[in-house]
Design brief:
- The complex is a heterodimer of chains A (467) and B (194).
- With 467 residues, chain A is α/β, with parallel strands linked by helices.
- Helix content of chain A is 33%, strand content 16%.
- Chain A folds into two domains: 271 residues, Aconitase, domain 3; 175 residues, Aconitase, domain 3 (2-Layer Sandwich), CATH 3.30.499.10.
- Chain A is built from 16 helices and 19 strands.
- In chain A, helix 6 links the parallel strand 9 and strand 10.
- Chain A is globular.
- By secondary structure, chain B is of the alpha/beta class.
- Chain B has one domain: Aconitase, domain 4, CATH 3.20.19.
- Chain B contains seven helices and seven strands; from the N terminus they run βαβαβαβαβββααα.
- Classes of the chains: A alpha/beta (467), B alpha/beta (194).
Chain lengths: 467, 194
Amino acid sequence: MNARTLFEKIWQRHIVVDRDDGYTLLYIDRHLMHDGSAAGFSRMRERGIKLRRPNRGFATPDHYLLSDSGNVADIPDPHHRRLVEAITTNTAESGVTLFPVGDERQGIAHVVGPEQGVTQPGLTLVCGDSHTSTHGALGALAFGIGSSEVAHVMATQCLWQRKPKAMRVNVDGTLGNGVTAKDVILAIIAKISAAGAVGHVIEYTGSAIRDLSIEGRLTICNMSIEAGGKAGMVAPDDTTLAYLDGRPFAPKGAEWDKAVKFWRSLPTDEGATFDHDVSLDAAAITPMVTWGTSPEDALPITASIPEPSTAPDTSKKDSMQRALEYMGLVPGTPLEQVAVDRVFIGSCTNSRIEDLRAAAKVAQGRKAVIPTWVVAGSGLVKRQAEAEGLDKIFRDAGFEWREQPGCSMCVGMNGDTGKPGQRIASTSNRNFVGRQGLGVRTHLVSPAMAAAAAVSGRFTDVRRLLS
Amino acid sequence: MEPFTTLEAAAMPIDQPNLDTDQIIPARFLGKPRSMQIEALFKDLRAKPDFVMNQPGFAGAKIIVAERNFACGSSRENAVTVMMDNGFQAFIAPSFGDIFFNNCFQNGALPIRLAPARAAEIRAALHAKPGSPVKIDLVSQTVTGPDGKTDRFDIDSFRKDCLLKGVDEINLTLSYDAEITRFEAKQQQEMSWL
């Protein structure tokens, strides 16, 4: 048999129908739902059809929850409140598993899936959210879909797909102190561009990726979409198995052994080829900061705001000028001299226990000089952080330890937004114009770099604070 | 779903690369009924007087000709529906965000990939003469610019067929029920832990 990639193996195993016109009906093993998935349920009702396999669905509210209250009745916008309420009634009617508000298993869908063992190697997983690529960190084929396709999966447990191409991003070497998974993915996107992986599934390989924890791999795969990738994946290994063992929805006993045998067969075969290959040297990656309005606008913290005159073409020059104007930045300014107004630590990119530990390590014994929020990715992450005393470190440092896990300021759908002109150091995934509120200037950074900005009031090379 | 066959209409150029879905419809308008979202199209871009949609010459446009990686970002299908509710039915760009691209077909809208140079040429012609038409013929897979030059574009025959006939994809898939059931039985044996 031909040498196959991890992606190819999962793809082939999920083909229900292969049509002559190049389209495949692909079976979907896991469907994650959140408070924005209500439209899918409405369409089912309108058509008078039931979910085909409700036991393959898992739901948790995240986008519209207030970060300072777990009481749904406190949500001021009636439309938003209804969406959060709808997830309870919709899942009860359909039989989909729900992790509701108030249950410590609730959280951001992309934190909850892996945490509960719902996400597993070799599965196909979708969710009506672009950051579904996150789940590929466990060796699943996971991608985001729109609300029509959400309804399609509910009705048929399948999706029509044209097979994407495969890209390998290899990162070899050892990451320096203070350099994290977030810096790696920002460096990758800066290298290949925000459209660099359009039409491709990325597999991340190399010793630097292997050395990452599952949390780190989740951060990397999470931002595959910011490079245009359909999905991002890391082959399952001992780290993956150790992470999954004992999780509530992971197989047990003889089933675990059977699953492990399958999971061990998944890694890309020696000699398998990719449509594109990219490689980075881990040792050359530094803490990163974005300066513009696309995740590709990322630079080492040691760099300065770029000059549009150095752009390769007019289109790039125009977009750089537009971005600098929006961001209120002057070319040539060292990034370390840029003052920050506010900090957000959270989101499906960076709200897991390891992220909070990295931020707490920098916060410990220091004081925030600007408003700084920490929003845990799930109730379980929050409980663990509190058990480890991280909440106390944050509070002592003047960081706000927010009450309710959820998406919060990453997308601001719940009203957690900045003020026009505010500059925010954020551990989230998108620095788009207006992403964190009208006129808000978002800079993407790692949790450690966010904490460094919090205690110094400007972007700061966290490596100095750690030494 | 309404079938899509041909469209000859005024086109609006958008020169900005990576124009993301947050700019097409900002997050603060999501979660509202579709009828309340119509006004949200390009809401924050429209606050600038020089934004192309504010120029009267482009009123009534039904086609957008954009730059690379158009509608990248979130999976919000509202990005498609809010543009359709404002009259746009086809989008031409060198490349698109994958999820947006798929969402178009789910709503009977046509996304067309054209070479970057040709897309730039059409945008320049539209700026030079606002209101000039672009003609799209899905059957022959051609786009004719305001300069009269015609290009062929690629589209998957599956997607083309679904658009031309206005196929309801859920009904189509349900016609494969026997195959899905067979797959599920096999998977139940092979991956019994699921």
